[in-house]
Amino acid sequence: MDDGLYFSDQHRAVRDTVRAFARDEVAPVASDLDVRAEFPWPTVKRMAELGLLGVPWPESMGGAGLDLVSYLIVIHELAKVDASHAITVSAHTTLGTSPIVHFGTAAQCARYVPLLAAGKVLGGFGLTESGAGSDAAGTQTRAVRKNGHYVLNGGKVFITHGGVGEVFVVTAVTDPGVGTRGISAFILTKETVDLDQARELGIGHAESLVPLAGFTSGKKEDKLGWRASDTRALTFTDVEVPVENRLGEEGAGFTNFMRTLDSGRIGIAALSLGIAEGAFEAALAYAGVRRQFGQRIAHFQGVQFPLADMATEIEAGQHLVFHAAWLAQRGKPFGKQAAMAKLFCSELAMRTTIMAVQLHGGYGYTRDFPVERMMRDAKICEIGEGTSEIQRVVIARHLLRELAD
Amino acid sequence: MKIAVCIKRVPVMDRRFTIAPGGTTIDEVGLAYDVNDFDLWAVEAALRLKEQVGTGEVVVLSLGPDVVQEQIRKALSMGADRGIHLQAASVGADDLPVARALADALRDGGYDGIFLGRLAVDRANGVTGPVIAELLGLPCVTAVSKLEIANGRGRAQRELEGAQEIVEFPLPAVITVDQGLNTERLPTLKGIMGAKKKPLEVRPVTLDAPRVTVRRLALPPERIGGRIIGEGVGAVPELVRLLHDEAKVL
Ligand SMILES: Cc1cc2nc3c(=O)[nH]c(=O)nc-3n(C[C@H](O)[C@H](O)[C@H](O)COP(=O)(O)OP(=O)(O)OC[C@H]3O[C@@H](n4cnc5c(N)ncnc54)[C@H](O)[C@@H]3O)c2cc1C
């Protein structure tokens, strides 16, 4: 892809910074973090310093004031090296912060966004419940209004930054019996589980936030991939949430979250594309040096064909991702293209990483090469923020709507 | 503390180079460009000095066609205050006209220090700094790997073959920076955003006619892969024979 189609000089400057950071500071630690399933506070601090945790928010709110394409470049470049770092940026920015920026009052924005945009604290987004995954409308968590408070009871599962984060946007039913129109959103705060480390590094905790009693996180999930990302259940036991913490109107929670997920999908698509490209680059380089039968394996047509397929599909994926972003940035409808980009790129990441391991032979199956980690990291991209099946449902819904018009 | 830093746009070195038709220039297709590494360390040194003193200005100059503005913006995104683009459509192989144009732009700038890289990784002549110093009548300290500046004087360490030299000098002075002085900072995203709003002045310049021209460029001979003759002591006679008869080094 000629990057001039979608990128300006400024976008290239952003890419240079993130590439250099990923190469020099993330690549050396990625494998070890994966083995130990450790949340990378020191590199997260560096990401905060570089401004990677508030890319698209206005400078007046403490963000970098850059556009959506810049933000996607950050996720894409990080994912080429380590998907866990990329999802940390994506979950924090799109899921944790964007609902407040888009649907919050001026007071809510002033209170939370500067802390989040500077990376002073990490944010998360709680939609999924044990009984409400793909069917996010099946939310059971209840919010009952009582004496100037909402009292929340229930819980969420699989929440990125559940432990390390301090600011969460979550959904709960305020009006049972009216379906999705009875779901509202709330901003909830708690202390990070890594308080000592946060205090030592000066990141991850804000004294100005009031932890809400009864709001806790569970044990860290032991995952196949994204192992350096923190995923946990959240539990709400009689949590008294001040009315001023309601995000948006009562009953608007579900529609607002669906809008958040629309743009979130471009982010996961960019992340998936990054994994695919990282694995492809590793496979191409390996095929150029590994010798069998007296020659480089890249000389075998049986190796060249999959490399050609991977490169072609990656190029197609780049256009899907950056075209969806191009639409979104111009205020045009982009929901269908975002779902297409997410569907295609997440499945591409899976195919490409499996083939990259194959081209590495036995070495690819060991931790001495990054491709086995990339293969494990790719799988969740077909599941999180809407499974591949749900993307197809969304795309088909757009098609049928167009048919009806 | 007012410091000027001269930076050069150079091809990124990890690419494969080919010679363009005509045989006197590099084929630019597929090349990526960046600020010369040594110049980035010069920018970093200037920024640190300004931060240490607490006040001052870091001005970045680059000479060349309009594309060099990309490199000036990079220095601005690292934290330099303003840029001057000395606009010249093409720059030849003679460093004297370049140094003269830079010296003319620097002469009345009131700079306490003029920083450059020890050399540019593309041509590796390493003369631009010393020639500027000569033209401006300033002291020149080359290949600096440690630098302290206080009370209008400088103290620098220079790396020699197997030894170090410590020199002292008055300001203003021209300093060329060697590897090891520092590691340059990455531009932050806010820095990149802010760089757009910083002043970048364009001054067209006319370069004197070059007296050095490139006649011919040639790539180094392809490295031929190694050959394994055998193992252990048994292989030594054959190795000696080949070194003598084929490689002709014995
Ligand atoms: C590492 C990780 C991080 C996550 N982070 C977050 C987060 O930060 N916030 C958050 O809210 N959630 C998060 N999730 C949850 C994630 O979004 C859900 O797991 C996902 O939406 C799927 O829901 P489920 O797991 O309940 O699967 P289910 O919905 O139970 O799906 C099971 C299978 O049934 C299929 N299926 C379901 N319905 C249909 C249908 N109508 N047609 C066809 N097939 C269907 C699915 O595609 C899937 O194959 C995370 C999950 C993981 C693993």
Structure description:
With 405 residues, chain A is α+β, with helices and mostly antiparallel strands. Chain A is 52% helix and 15% strand. Chain A is built from 11 helices and 10 strands. In chain A, the strands form 3 sheets. A 4-stranded mixed β-sheet of chain A has the order 1-4-5-8. In chain A, strands 2-3-7-6 form a 4-stranded antiparallel β-sheet, covered by helices on one side. Chain A is globular, with a radius of gyration of 21 Å. The mean pLDDT of chain A is 96. Chain B is α/β, with parallel strands linked by helices. Chain B has one domain: HUPs (Rossmann fold), CATH 3.40.50. Chain B has a 9-stranded mixed β-sheet with strand order 9-8-7-10-6-1-4-5-11, sandwiched between helices. In chain B, helix 2 (69-78) packs across helix 5 (189-195). The mean pLDDT of chain B is 94. At the A-B interface, helix 1 of A face helix 2 and helix 5 of B. The complex binds flavin-adenine dinucleotide. Flavin-adenine dinucleotide (FAD) binds at residues 91, 95, 124-128, 133-134, 158-160, 223, 226, 231, 380, 383-387, 389-390, 393 of chain A.
Strand tally of chain B = 11
CATH topology of chain B: Rossmann fold
Low-pLDDT windows of residues of chain A: none
Succession of helices and strands of chain A: HHHHHEEEEEHEEEHEEHHHH
Which key terms come to mind for this protein?
heterodimer, A: 405 residues, alpha+beta, four-stranded mixed beta sheet, four-stranded antiparallel beta sheet, 11 helices, globular, B: 250 residues, alpha/beta, Rossmann fold, nine-stranded mixed beta sheet, two-stranded antiparallel sheet, 11 strands, binds flavin-adenine dinucleotide
Question: Summed up, what is this model?
Answer:
Chain A has 405 residues and is α+β, with helices and mostly antiparallel strands. Helix content of chain A is 52%, strand content 15%.
